[in-house]
TrEMBL record:
Name of the protein in question: Signal recognition particle subunit SRP68
InterPro entries, per the entry: SRP68, SRP68-RBD, SRP68_N_sf
Pfam families reported in the protein's UniProt record: SRP68 (PF16969)
Function: Component of the signal recognition particle (SRP) complex, a ribonucleoprotein complex that mediates the cotranslational targeting of secretory and membrane proteins to the endoplasmic reticulum (ER). The SRP complex interacts with the signal sequence in nascent secretory and membrane proteins and directs them to the membrane of the ER.
Phylogenetic classification of the source organism: Eukaryota, Viridiplantae, Streptophyta, Embryophyta, Tracheophyta
Location within or outside the cell: Cytoplasm; Endoplasmic reticulum; Nucleus, Nucleolus
Domain of life: Eukaryota
Gene Ontology MF terms: 7S RNA binding; endoplasmic reticulum signal peptide binding; signal recognition particle binding
GO biological process terms on file: SRP-dependent cotranslational protein targeting to membrane
GO CC term, one of those recorded: signal recognition particle, endoplasmic reticulum targeting
Keyword annotations from UniProtKB, A to Z: Cytoplasm, Endoplasmic reticulum, Nucleus, Ribonucleoprotein, RNA-binding, Signal recognition particle
Amino acid sequence: MVRNYNYNYKLCPFTCARAVTAPKAIHKLVRATERERDHCEAAAGEINPITIPDTSPYPRPFEMGKDSQASSAMEIDDLKSNSSDQIAPKFSINVLQLLKSAQMQHGLRHGDYTRYRRYCTARLRRLYKSLKFTHGRGKYTRRAITESTVTEVRFLHVVLYTAERAWSHAMEKRQVLDGPNARQRIYLIGRLRKAVKWATLFAQLCAIKGDSRTSLEAEAYASFMKGSLLFEQDQNWDTALMNFKSARAVYEELAKYGDLESQVLCRERVEELEPSIRYCLHKVGESNLQASELLQIGEMEGPALDLFKAKLEAVMAEARSQQAASMTEFHWLGHRFPISNPKTRVSILKGNSENVKDDLNGLDKAVSAVLGQRTIERNQLLVNNAKSKLTKRRDDKNEKATKPEELVRLYDLLLQNTSDLSDLVSSGRDRKPEEVAFTEDCELKSLAFRAERSYSLAGKRVEAYALYCHARSLAETALQKFQAVNNGDQMIIEELKILYDECRSNSCIEHATGIMEELKAPENLSKKISSINLTGVDKKVEKFLLEKLDVYESAVGESNVKSAPRIEAFPPSFQSITRNPIVLDLAYNHIDFPSLQHRMRKDKSGFLSSLF
């Protein structure tokens, strides 16, 4: 094969030398050579073509392009065949858990729909950017999400959060102080329609692209949105009831499967949907809600109940009007009074509903009071147990001893319990004589506990005696008041009698014990002074093992008693030892000793040393 190029002869060696580099270099070289050829033809006329043998191992540029196109076409055909053979994967979304976590973390825990709407907007912006699914930089260009568009699960998140944004915007308009006016209500219903539109699209896409559980949750979500729209429009109650029941049925079935958290969330959503279903039944005519039931529903929490709570006052007014239509007379202390004015009937029913609310509060208060009494009885049993351990001779070393501080702590708990119980009973507006007597009984018990606490705290006999006397006087006063009442509570009377006797006996005991301690105080003081030890060791000194080798007794101690083993004293104590005597030579400087020069050796000297 021979290539024919019209090259200048000066460029031919360069061309041939550079032709064996790389395919990209060939393209650049050919373009540069053609430009140089055109320049030479314009300057010197026609140039004979030069035939260059095709010795390069690389293909020509145009041939390489054809080969690459053919290979890419083959790869595309292979991909198409592989994709047709494979089954598209199904996406899985735990819709309820995803929405609940987002709602609780971004405002709906406190009913802040504005914050949640802003979160949905920011979340959508991040999803659009990550998916590169923006709608134009300048002018808005709508891009629809269809079945072919959904290539990953985040496209389903886009549709879901768009529906949530529209729904939260509608609920935000619902939370206006005086309620939405006509213009705001139209806007609110429009946002709910948009939420229904996106929720329906989400259900359709999940039915195609999602698994079975995701499809069911999406259907339940769309049904809830449709029911909420009809609930707000106050029309088509049959259709709204059907949608709410459909959502409840799906969540009831989903609550039987999955992990524990998903089951709990599904059960909570079923409980949130129940009031809306009952109200729809009431509007259809298959149920009759009472005012007390409406109050109980109003105390429930959950995002699904916010639309119901917004209409609660209107619903209660409607319920009162229906009850007032059947109310013709008013009963009071055996008298019957006819009522002809409808407004008067509604006012009486409103007062009765407030009485029902007071009855519920009173029931709650009574249950709390009973729990408080049981707590006091339990703490009294603990006090008796601690006293028995404190007064009993502890011959058994295995049993843990009770300290007086434990009694003080228990009496502090009893004082707190009686104070809380007294505050709870005295919190009502209209107090009955039984409640007044119960409050006085709590105060008497509190005084008795204070006396016991002061005695257990540091043995203060004077304060304990004064408190016992005061408690006895109050118990006597309360007992006289109870006995003056014909239908007095016999149990409280018996308790007051026991309390009076205990206060009287304890005051006498404290008085006598205080006098005895005062008389024995000088004697005890002299005993303590006489037993003072300079070493500071007042306990009985036990012998060590080396001192009682003839006695078969363990020096290590028992395993359940924390005591140091008495084998040998360590570190050993100091003992006195003998030392060298001290000699003081006081007369040394005053003694004249004899001379010893004559006994000393004399040094011999030479002739020369004698001359000098």
